Structure formats: structure tokens, C-alpha cells
Amino acid sequence: xxxxxxxxxxxxxxxxxxxxxxxxxxxxxxxxxxxxxxxxxxxxxxxxxxxxxxxxxxxxxxxxxxxxxxxxxxxxxxxxxxxxxxxxxxxxxxxxxxxxxxxxx
Length: 105
Known about the structure:
The chain contains 4 helices and 3 strands; from the N terminus they run ααβαβαβ. The longest helix is centred in the first third of the chain and has 16 residues, at 21-36. By secondary structure, the protein is mainly alpha-helical. Strands 2-1-3 form a 3-stranded parallel sheet, covered by helices on one side. The chain has one domain: Phosphoglycerate mutase-like (Rossmann fold, 3-Layer(aba) Sandwich), CATH 3.40.50.1240.
């Protein structure tokens, strides 16, 4: 049996970690605040991490949004922020909401 390194184990845990009950409640409150502010999004982007997908689903549920949730791998940990910004600047979208891990480099 092959053992995972600490870094591999942490990466696996990050990919599968879910939002906590407290995290879900905070995100619902945040999304309700966005709604009161009149924020609307054309696109919801989320990394493939489970908690990012869950966060985006909460936004989709509580805001007036009819589009689909898109998974963007450039939002995953270790991705290049510069590449993400390049891709975003080429997109013809006005209002985008993203759910990502804060460890973009």
C-alpha cells in the first residue's frame, strides 16, 4: 500500500472537505445581503472543490440567477491568478460570481 505524503493528503482533504453547518449559515446570510444590495450575476464560477461547489449552489439558490454553475479549474489551489485574470479579461461577461480557494498564486 502506497502512503500519501502530507502535501498529497492535504490536497485530497481540501478537495473533499464540505462546508460546515456554520459555513452554510454564514453563506446564506451573505447571499441574502447580496440580494438586498441588488447584486445579480450572469455567471457563477466555482472551483471543483466540494465546498466551493456548495458555496456556489447557495448563491444560485438565494439570488435571482437563471444560468448554470460553471466549474473553472483556474480557481483551484495552486492555479495561476495571472492566468485566471487573462481568461476573465477575454470573457464577454459583465457580472461574475466566483467561489474559490484563497491560495491562488
